[in-house]
Structure formats: C-alpha cells, structure tokens
Amino acid sequence: AGWFRRLLHKPKLSSVASSLDTSSSASSSPSSSSVESSGYSPSMSLVRPIRLSPISTSDINASGSARWAKSYDVCICHSEVDLELVEELVSYLEGQPESFRCFLQLRDAAPGSAMVTELCDAVQNSHCWVMLITPGFLQDPWCKYQMHQALAEAPLANGRTIPVLKDVDRKDYPKELRNLYYIYMALKENSFRQIRDTIMLYLQELCRSSASRME
C-alpha cells in the first residue's frame, strides 16, 4: 500500500522536464534587454558559457602549478594602430588578483633581437594568445604571421587562441579562425572580463589536467 501511495504522488515526468527546461532557459539565455544594451547578439560572441571550475586562484598561483611552465599567461597579438586599446587590456589583466603575465611586443621584446624570433618565442612561451582582430590587424602581415604561428602551436586551439573582433564585419573574420568562437568587442569592459575569464578557464583546466597526470 505504501509504495502504491508513493506512486500516485510521484510527479509526472513531463512536468519535471518542463520545469527543468524553464529553469535552464532562464539561466543560460541572456535577457533581451542585456543583449540590446551590449550591442551584440550571443551568436557573435563566445557561445559556450564560461564556467570557472572549483580550482582556486591559490591553486593556480602555487609554486608547483603548471602555470609556471611557461613565461607568460597570455600573448597579445595586435596591430600598432591599436596599441592604446591593447595597453588598457594589458593593464586590466595585470591588475587582476591573478596578476596575469602578459607579453606585449613593444614593451617586452628584447632590444636588438630579431622580430621573427621574438614573435615565435612569445607564442611558444605563452599559455594563451589573444588576437585583437581589427581593420589594422587584417592589413598587418606581422599580425597574420603571429596568428599562423599560434595556430601551428595549437592546431585544435583548445581555448588557447582567443579571437577578439572590433570594428570588423563578420564576413571579414579570418578564414583560418572560423572554427573558433570569438568575442565581439562592443562594450570594452564586458569584453575585457570575457577575455580574463577565458584565460582563467584555460589555466584551471591546465592545472586540473596536470594534477590528474600526477595522481
């Protein structure tokens, strides 16, 4: 009799699914007001929501962390005409609690060294690469060279290459990056935060993977 009463009071599967669908859409879909205020649609930005893992900042900053296997957390690839914006981004990232280590070519390249050597070393010694794709980027052969070096370093990307579009039509998005979601820079503050969260997500996954191999 007891199990029969419980069966009668068991919620219907359709109502459970409906409630789950409702809560899921509410949590994962941005409101129309937020989309309108930001100036871009979800399809023009990172489609996969960024969910930071339980690995803490202290774990990432620990002396034995896989983070320290490379000299830089992120290499910024940009055109010289966009230097002012890039300096703002670098200042933002380096001012975060994680103190991200950024490679900025005009600041960090060794005087007298070959440009090609510096670009290749920066790509190889960075965990992530931000590609600030602007009209200036598309016209700069050195930017394209660095983009190709990054793709050669990690052909499947795996979160390491972070394209950021600004003042560029979707039709002009480099064909080499079309298998990657990108950040569309409409509101600078939001875009900076997305870049920061993407770098952090990669470092968390890197540390978790390293810890798993050691177990």
From TrEMBL:
Gene Ontology terms describing biological process: positive regulation of canonical NF-kappaB signal transduction; positive regulation of chemokine (C-X-C motif) ligand 2 production; positive regulation of tumor necrosis factor production; toll-like receptor 4 signaling pathway
An annotated GO cellular component of this protein is: plasma membrane
InterPro entries given for it? Answer: TIR_dom (IPR000157), Tol-interleuk_rcpt_adapt_Tirap (IPR017279), Toll_tir_struct_dom_sf (IPR035897)
Q: Where is the composition biased (Low complexity)?
A: 14-42
**PROSITE patterns attached to this UniProt entry:** TIR
SUPFAM superfamilies given for it? Toll/Interleukin receptor TIR domain
Q: Which domain of life is it from?
A: Eukaryota
Q: Which Pfam families match?
A: TIR_2 (PF13676)
TIR domain mapped to chain residues: 70-199
* Annotated spans, Disordered: 13-42
Q: What are the GO MF terms of this UniProt record? A: Toll-like receptor 2 binding; Toll-like receptor 4 binding
Report what the protein is called: TIRAP protein
Native species: Fregata magnificens (Magnificent frigatebird)
Q: What is the lineage of its organism?
A: Eukaryota, Metazoa, Chordata, Craniata, Vertebrata
